[in-house]
C-alpha cells in the first residue's frame, strides 16, 4: 500500500495457498474489471505483490495451473464502459509464456520480452501453466505526456535481444526489490523510469519508415508539443506555422480519428498531469498557465473531466 509520504513498501495481495476466488478478486476487480474462467482451488497456486513508486504500481505476478486449466483473462467493451480506471500496463515476462491480444494484434511473450497493453481497450490475456511476470501500471496521462502515440504501440513485443529493452527490463526487476525510497526520491525515480520505458517503446516499435503524410503529421505534432504553453495556439495559427491549409491539417489528424485541437488539449492535459504528479509546481495556477490555460477554473474542470481527479488530488 502506498503510504502518505510515498515510501516504496511492498504489499502481498495474493499468497501461495490463497483461493482462486481471492486471486480473481484482485486481478479481475482490483486491477481492472475483467472476467476469467474458474480454476479449481486444489489445482491452483498464485502470488501477487505490489509496491508503489510515486504514481507507478509495480506488480509481481506468478501463477501455476494444470495445462488444461491455464488462466485466460478477458476484458470486453462493456467491461471498459463500466470501469473508469485508465492505465497502460507495461509487462515484463520472467518465466513461462504470456499471450496477449488487443487491437487485432496477438503477441506471445517469453523470458525477457516486454509488451504494452491499454486498459481502456478490450483485450485477452493468457498465462502458461507456470508463468511469472511483472506488470507496471502507468496512469495514461503520464505515458501520453512522454509518448503521445502510445495507443498505437500496444500488443507489440520488444524482444529480449533488444539492448534498450534489456535495460528497461533490468530496471523493472530492480524496482521490485526497491524498499528504501521515500517522498520526492520515489517520485523522481518513478519519473526517470517512465522516461526509460517511453524511450524503449518509441525506439523499438516506431522504426518503420514513415509515409509522406505521417512525416507531415509528426512535424505538426512536434510543433504543437513545443508550444503547449501558448494560449493563442489555435487551428489557424498551427496551419500558418506549418505552411498548410487548415483543411489539410484537419485531414492529417482525421486519419487518427481526432482533430488538431482535440489532440492539442489532450497533450496539454497530459503534460499538466505529469507536472502535478511529479511535483514540479507548487501551485495549480502555475501549472495551468504553463500548459496554455488562461482560465484556471476552466483548467480544473477540464482536468477533472479527463482524469476523474482534481489537480489538487493529483498533487497530493
Automatic annotation (TrEMBL):
Coiled coil: none annotated. This is AraC-like DNA-binding protein. One of its GO terms (molecular function) is DNA-binding transcription factor activity. Transmembrane segments: none annotated. The keyword Transcription applies. SMART domains: HTH_ARAC. Residues 218-316 form the HTH araC/xylS-type domain. Keywords: DNA-binding, Transcription, Transcription regulation. It comes from the Bacteria.
